[in-house]
Amino acid sequence: MNRLSKVAVGGRRWLAWPDLSSSGSLVAVFNLPFAAFTAWLLWRSLAWPLVGDAAIFHFIAGQMAMGAVPYRDIIDVNMPLTYHLHAAVVAIGGMSDVAWRAFDLTAAAIISACIFVLVAPAGRAVAILAMLAVLVTHLLLGPYSAGQRDLLMSIPALANRASRSSPSPPSGGNGSPISP
What we know:
Blueprint: E1 6-9, E2 12-15, H1 24-45, H2 53-65, H3 80-93, H4 97-119, H5 124-140, H6 149-163
């Protein structure tokens, strides 16, 4: 039974995160099979081919490496950062599926680390569970989700928020966990 505790800060009463320390061991017991499932999905994802949008952008990055200019020689409606990101992956790892898979798994690891930092104030077991849930969600979506822009766009937002996260209750403002 989770109950929100009230914390007094600056003469005002705030609702705080529920005390999950008593249920932490229960979450930790659940984390082990969930981590095994995540590892199995991760192992299966290593053979994902380069498909969908990523294949098109990789082709465009290869054309750029040969001198083509986006919007002049290559007709596509995507923003330049998409092309430059793929061009960097191609320059570092080549046109292979392995290079894109390594990039996608690196992005997923960064997102997972940010989620862990954001949820860590609720407890280590809960933070691990949140991190595994995000990773499993990405892996269950299949090869078409590898390196999708919405996944990549979440990295700066999560990293920004994780860099400013604090385990203490808010010291002022409207009490929202998301600070301006």
